[in-house]
Batch of 2 targets.
Target 1
Amino acid sequence: MTTISTDRLYATLVAGALAYVSAGSGVALGTSLSNRLFRQAAAKDAAYPYAVFSLRTPQLPDGDQGLKAVYQLEAFVYHRPRSAQAEAEGYADTLASYLRTLRDASNGLVYATDVVAESLPAFTSPADSSIVQVRITAKVHVWPSFISSLST
Amino acid sequence: MTPEFAAFKQRFERARDAGLVAAALLYQGAVREKLIRGYTSGAFVTGATSSSVQMTAPHDDAGGREVVVGSNELVALYWEMGHHNLFTRKYERVEHWRHALEENAPKMLAAYAGAFQRALQGAA
């Protein structure tokens, strides 16, 4: 894990999520999604199911001397048709589990709190009602790498 | 509870609610202003989504005292959360609510503080 840039943070979160195996399943999320976990936006005409990660609204909260950044993480799992609702929710649960158990101090410190997964209702026209959307949100706390290098 | 403390508590609670309402009114106005221009070209705007933005009275919730600003128009949910549009044949997302909150957070804090102070210092 590196906290040197947002790009590296994305890369690490995506790699970690794809490799994550939820308890009892024995299957990595990356296998289930055929590694279709995108940053910010999905590839054009991506096959279903797929997921999209985005780190938004980076902030330096008061009280931490501007050292810690907090990102609002938003992820969506997309699947179709509507009969795939349960399957999509399963992938979202796996993503949520990954975030809840995320504790990485290999270079800086990264962890997530306030993890919530929620299915969106079936949309109607003009939206495609056959697509299932499950939203996962969390706060990702990022302490810079010198915190851990100072402690060695 | 002494009569003095009871009076202060009552005034404090009134001030807190006044602050919440002031901040929520500012946010409600900011969202309505964005929505009046619509989500895309503005060609299909009827004003229904903008006028659907409502706020509740202050009330207790698990996290404390709150005012909720929201809309029951599902079309707003489609655009804010993103959807695969049948007409444009692509993924569409335009976020007005989150941007309005981020743009107006300092003003909302100031509105809360001002209303709180005025209500706390006002007549008992």
Target 2
Amino acid sequence: LTVLHNLYRKVWSQHRTTDIYKGLFDSVAAEREWGMAGLACLSRYYQLEPHVAAPNPVQRETWVRATLAENVTVRGIVDRLDLVRDTGDDNDDDPAAAATAVGAGRDRKKGDVVLRLMDYKTGKAPDLKYSPAMNAKIEREAWDQLVLYSLLLRESKNTPIRFLRLIYLGGDIDDDDAVATVWNKRLEQGDMDDMKAKILRLWAEIVEKLSSDDPFRAFSGCSRSFCYCHQCRTKFAPDAVWQQRPCPPAVGRYERKT
Amino acid sequence: MDENTLVPLNATISLNNHDALSSSSSPSRHTKNDDDNNISATTTSFGPILALHSYDAPSTLAAVNAFSPFSMNATLLVSPLPHHYANNIVSSSAQDEEEQESSVMILDGYDDVQLQSSPVQNDLLPREPAVVVTEKTTSMITLDDNETARTSSPALPSNEEEDTLFTAHDFNITIPKVLSPSALKEYENCPQSFFFQYILKLKQPTNTALAKGSMCHSALEQFLGLEYPIAI
């Protein structure tokens, strides 16, 4: 864990004065609080996978790129691919867990050796406290990115992903009850087929709007107060881009002076 | 000192009310001069910065635990000979005075040192130092204590120099050839935010949440970058 923490410190030491990050904090205290929260996230990760033998990555931070249709290419970086064993027990919270015990002296269940795609999130896991329909929507959206990466791997390299894993490393340092949360999912071919159809639909929408007479007003904003669209709209002349009516005041550090 | 002995040189750094750093450690016999014989550091509004000041030979290898404002301990692990690498970068607080005096590294200020990273080994026992002193060629960060942290704002392009607002004529619109999953997700959540960021290239400034995610990913990437034995 100390090594992992020190790697975090090292990485931050290398980046903290770069143009991207050097204006991020108002004070040393704020920077330290942020850093401690990052260390806490990694501590929670280490609680999950404390031993050298536990994680078994065959790939990490790997670029993947696939052309899903003519002029439709998607690319991204996969956090991690693990070799695991499919025990076939879907009632288990982690049907592939036994295979992660390679070398750790634990019993190994029999089953195919398969690939599991993993993604780390440094925030909290979505709160599933809503209606069943809403919870299902939240869960589906949480898995979307991993399903898309699995699709890219299938389309580009014919790499078969059997399992997905999401690790939420928790929230702030002052949240004593914060724990890492692991979500597991068995991936079905239909998930990827649905994702492919969705990507093609979104792409077609984007192209249609960009090809319209006024693409600047073809892309509408949203009602989420934290969204970047509210800040960025204020950088444009009136009616140059889609505007919300009535136009709310901009918020944040890029609020425009009048 | 036995040549196989790794000498951890531990310096405990603390911030005082003036954001100046005080530190303590044993003096080294390899100091440049009598005034430089302590590990020392200073701080800026970004936090404390440590830098290697001098060393007795170019072949000296050292592993330095990364130092940043949320780490109030800096630990040097020093090997007196080139082939003796740090075998454990776990911090140690109990240090023998004589061993510290035998060490070959000196920390002091910001003077002319280039640091080069090398990976930590997969088994948590680095066979190469985390940081290698290569040559004295470049300066480390030299911010004054009173320098403000907010020297510039990243990201969003500014058009305030002329105090004018963007119009459609300021951009060339092209249909993207490649998109990322993040871009597609952004389009799904907010088409206009997608348009600003991925078509007009008006990138959103980074924030603390994104920064934390990036740093955790980088740390984990290095942590896992490695050579786990596959034994399924």
